[in-house]
Design brief:
about 325 residues; mainly alpha; about 80% helix
């Protein structure tokens, strides 16, 4: 594995893990489309490929990048878990959300442990990844086209709330004393508003209950198929169960974090074993870019899904998938 390969694939992994376009699908397709040594070095379907050790590092770095963005939220949620154990209760928003995330992760965790290898070897082929990428695009489009009334109403209600907050924010107000200068005051105010919005979103999410959360979390199983996006199908499942697009995205990102981290940690032996020999430098560089890409992506997408749709990603997946099928067939 070369450093150019590590740089390109590392950054693409970090970005596509959060964007609803399937990181695994891109990890399979891009080397095949480039061809040559890339196709030989970066073959995810090969049982003993060093690429597997590389992907382990990327997964851990991606999860860390997401956790850095959501660190305040995870501090609250983890605190809610421990207070729930100590007090033997599930009453607060953080306690409920902690248990929802744990239980909703169980289906994909079990499926990954039992079938990840078989799915990767069987479906981790370029032409199949391209086909599933097309299917992913159709799922995203259908998720937007056939939104439930409850989900649309949730979008409208949150839009009205944001408009009211923006109207109130346009009025003169004192800048916090700890903020240095006008720009610093604006930055602090913006971050404080983001924290409040996150807490409000968690209150809404906690109301859907464990059963609904588990159904939404189970949708992640489809992401074992190269070309199907974990966050994309989870968002569609969340909107189908009545969540707003914004809340569905947040829940998808929170659900993805422990899954991605566990996928890397459980196979960390690949990094220290024979598969990782001779590519530790490439793993480090690729992982660094993957973590940065994940952080920038989630920061962008949290704001994007407040007002925008999955449709552009659906179009991209269909076009890229079709183009890849045609190119691979003619190659």
């Amino acid at each position: 594995m070369t450093y150019p390969e590590a740089i390109v694939v590392g950054f693409i992994q970090g970005v596509t893990e959060l964007f609803p376009v399937s990181s695994l699908g891109h990890n399979v397709l891009i080397p095949a489309l480039i061809g040559g040594s890339w196709a030989a070095d970066l073959n995810v379907a090969k049982p003993e490929s060093p690429y597997l050790a590389f992907i382990v590092g990327l997964h851990v770095a991606t999860a860390i990048g997401i956790m850095i963005y959501f660190w305040r939220d995870w501090v609250r949620i983890i605190g809610g878990f421990f207070t729930s154990i100590i007090r033997r209760e599930v009453r607060t928003t953080d306690q409920k959300l902690a248990w929802m995330l744990i239980i909703a992760t169980i289906p994909v965790g079990l499926a990954g442990l039992l079938f990840e290898h078989e799915f990767r070897v069987l479906f981790g082929k370029p032409i199949r990844a391209a086909i599933f990428l097309i299917i992913n695009g159709l799922i995203l489009y259908a998720g937007e086209r056939y939104r439930t009334r409850k989900s649309l109403q949730a979008d409208a209600e949150q839009a009205r709330q944001r408009a009211a907050e923006q109207s109130a924010a346009s009025r003169p107000r004192p800048v916090p004393a700890h903020a240095a200068g006008h720009a610093g005051g604006q930055a602090v105010a913006t971050r404080e508003e983001e924290i409040v919005h996150a807490q409000q979103a968690d209150e809404r999410l906690a109301m859907i209950g464990v059963a609904q959360a588990t159904l939404i979390g189970a949708a992640q199983i489809l992401a074992l198929l190269a070309g199907i996006s974990r966050d994309g199908v989870t968002m569609v499942a969340g909107m189908f169960r009545g969540l707003s697009r914004e809340d569905a995205a947040r829940f998808a990102f929170l659900l993805a974090t422990p899954v991605i981290l566990a996928a890397g940690v459980l196979k960390v032996g690949d990094l220290t074993g024979p598969l990782g020999d001779g590519i530790h430098g490439q793993i480090l560089v690729g992982s660094l870019l993957s973590g940065i890409g994940a952080y920038l992506s989630v920061r962008f997408l949290v704001r994007y899904f407040q007002t925008r749709t999955l449709t552009p990603f659906a179009v991209y997946c269909v076009l890229f998938g079709l183009g890849s099928v045609i190119y691979l067939q003619l190659k």
